[in-house]
Write a sequence for this structure.
């Protein structure tokens, strides 16, 4: 009983290819089954809409939004306060001669209250700065009048 060698090799090759495809398919499905996470461990992603920004609050946070108040204080200060002299120190101390409401000028030391709203914040060689407190930003700057040449 002699068989042809060519038909025997053809049968062996086809059998090997079918077995390899079956093994590859089984390996694919086993790996896919093991890699799948249970539904209880996956987290749902929920995106919430960002809250609307308040432009006035943002302006106050960045130091803006005080222009009306500063302008009112500057006009008020120009009519109430008049700087007549300054003694400035290098260590941020010093005195300013300030006249309030046309009264005679009095010396004020840095940190002294001029009225219930403002205090002397700092002095410079020809100016004095007023603020609500020493930690607050300067709200009003008083300058000495220009020197006139004879």
């Amino acid at each position: 009983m002699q068989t042809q060698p060519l038909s025997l090799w053809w049968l062996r090759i086809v059998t090997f290819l079918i077995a390899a495809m079956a093994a590859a398919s089984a390996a694919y499905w086993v790996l896919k089954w093991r890699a799948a996470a249970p539904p209880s461990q996956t987290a749902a992603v929920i995106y919430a809409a960002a809250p609307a920004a308040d432009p006035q609050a943002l302006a106050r946070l960045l130091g803006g939004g005080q222009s009306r108040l500063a302008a009112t204080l500057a006009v008020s200060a120009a009519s109430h306060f008049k700087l007549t002299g300054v003694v400035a120190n290098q260590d941020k101390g010093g005195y300013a001669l300030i006249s309030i409401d046309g009264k005679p000028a009095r010396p004020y030391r840095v940190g002294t209250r001029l009225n219930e709203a403002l205090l002397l914040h700092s002095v410079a060689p020809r100016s004095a700065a007023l603020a609500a407190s020493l930690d607050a930003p300067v709200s009003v700057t008083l300058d000495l009048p220009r020197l006139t040449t004879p």
In short: The first strand starts at residue 81 and ends at 88.
